[in-house]
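Budget justification aside, the reviewers requested a transparent look at the raw inputs and outputs of the sequence design task funded under Objective 1. We therefore reproduce one unedited record. The lines immediately below are the structure tokens for a 337-residue chain.
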């Protein structure tokens, strides 16, 4: 899997195309993000433990939303079930990613408290007052601690940024996924700088009218993660600028680089399906699977995957060796019966 290096302009394209995906189904996007926020707020009511639990399972939610993004791009509907769909597959690897990220956060917080000293900790946690002389020392320590936290948090975030997508779409293990995510962000540090700067600016504007703008910004950020994944790892652009780039029809978006032919009418399509109903999948090059841009469904976990990456066996497709082995085991068990 190649990591593509992109120019700075993609920092804007990710946000623009993310907003384009949100605009195609705004109500369901808002509902999905509101549900995720409600889960986070509910877990936050549990002191300390609730935040730890949400950090652990947040990659699972993110992976589910990314599966929904892929479904939406392929012309299907984003649904509420996508928020929880990743709990059915790769959940152990996704939780491991969350655990590594949580351990990194705890270590960074511990280091910040050590640098800031007990006075800074007492002032921040317990509201302890200090005199002017001590305040200068505390502020110096706080500035140093903040810089250290920033320098360590950025690499940790880079390692976790694409990890859920690499786990759920490419079946990578947590450590290799986090390594590849880190180097992908590092290789594209320039567009990510523009991306981060634009998000800061948009966040400021979104917070101005009582935070109402976050209703649009948060779904846009989630969708932009998927767009950036496609650009960097698949080398596929999702264009929206009509002035400089060809218009993208997300109803026809697919995982193939080959141009799509004109879509047949409903009558022609139904007639073709009736003619092909008795033809085996392996010998039918015009089957619905081929018409969907060489995207197939795993027979075990039902996740959509590019056809060229799937394991094929007697007209069935599998996303990984593990799921193929499970199918063979089930087949052997039925044969013995």
């Amino acid at each position: 899997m190649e990591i593509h290096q992109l120019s700075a302009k993609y920092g804007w394209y990710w946000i623009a195309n993310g907003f384009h995906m949100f605009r195609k189904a705004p109500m369901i996007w808002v509902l999905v993000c509101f549900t995720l926020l409600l889960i986070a707020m509910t877990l936050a009511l549990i002191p300390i433990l609730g935040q730890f639990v949400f950090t652990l399972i947040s990659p699972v939610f993110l992976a589910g939303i990314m599966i929904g993004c892929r479904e939406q791009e392929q012309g299907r509907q984003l649904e509420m079930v996508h928020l929880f769909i990743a709990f059915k597959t790769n959940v152990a690897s996704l939780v491991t990613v969350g655990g590594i990220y949580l351990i990194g956060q705890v270590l960074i917080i511990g280091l910040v408290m050590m640098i800031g000293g007990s006075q800074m900790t007492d002032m921040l946690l317990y509201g302890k007052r200090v005199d002017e002389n001590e305040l200068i020392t505390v502020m110096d320590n706080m500035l140093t601690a903040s810089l250290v936290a920033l320098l360590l948090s950025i690499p940790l975030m880079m390692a976790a940024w694409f990890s859920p997508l690499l786990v759920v779409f490419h079946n990578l293990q947590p450590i290799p996924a986090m390594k590849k995510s880190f180097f992908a962000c590092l290789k594209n540090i320039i567009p990510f700088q523009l991306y981060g700067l634009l998000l800061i600016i948009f966040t400021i504007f979104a917070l101005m009218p009582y935070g109402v703008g976050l209703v649009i910004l948060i779904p846009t950020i989630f969708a932009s993660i998927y767009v950036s994944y496609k650009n960097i790892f698949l080398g596929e652009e999702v264009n929206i600028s009509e002035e400089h780039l060809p218009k993208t029809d997300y109803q026809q978006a697919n995982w193939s680089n080959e141009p799509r032919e004109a879509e047949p009418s409903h009558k022609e399509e139904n007639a073709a399906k009736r003619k092909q109903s008795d033809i085996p999948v392996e010998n039918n090059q015009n089957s619905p699977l081929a018409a969907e841009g060489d995207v197939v469904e795993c027979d075990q976990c039902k996740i959509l995957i590019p056809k060229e990456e799937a394991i094929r066996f007697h007209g069935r497709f599998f996303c990984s060796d593990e799921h193929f082995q499970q199918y063979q085991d089930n087949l052997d068990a039925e044969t013995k019966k």
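The first helix runs from residue 10 to 24. The CA atoms of residues 209 and 220 lie 18 Å apart. Computational costs for records of this kind are itemized in the attached budget.
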